[in-house]
What we know:
five-stranded mixed beta barrel; rod-shaped
Amino acid sequence: MIDVPIEDLIFVVCTLVGGGLLLVTVLVDDILGGILDALHVGIDLGGVSLMPLALGFVSMFGIGGLFATQVLDVHGGQAAAIGAIGGAFGFGLVFVLFTILRRSEGATPFSTGDLVGREAFVGVGIPAGRNGSVFVKAEGQTHEFSATAAKDIPAGTTVRITGTAGTGLIVVPLEAATAEAPPTLGGPAT
């Protein structure tokens, strides 16, 4: 029969469980983060969720404890203290790695709501109450969106985006948009 000291068993279990769950967290963090965000649950520490940090601590606690019992030949409280030092190192290492990963993510893309107030160019004429298409410059590129308006707007007209309707835009001709603009604080509009 194999005789394994209980402290070594605890350290091995911490290493395997903590390391395995940390690997799963790294691979599916976006999915789990999305679920927790939808449920409005989450604790962040400097932009890094608490779960990978805790798992980094647990796995490195196990590795540090095994190092203490097998290499340094210390046991009990001393091995646990060395394991805790290893755990703190693992916590810090995971924090640094996840912070770097978070910073490397791209910016959140714009939404159609961000386009309200911008100018657009009508590509396909917009019949009153129906859909046409407009071209909008955003994030350094030209994007095409479906658009609707209260009045007929011919192709080639410059328009102002006044709202959104689903994934489409609501537009008015630029002349109408400037005529409807409120006066400035300096006095009446000219």
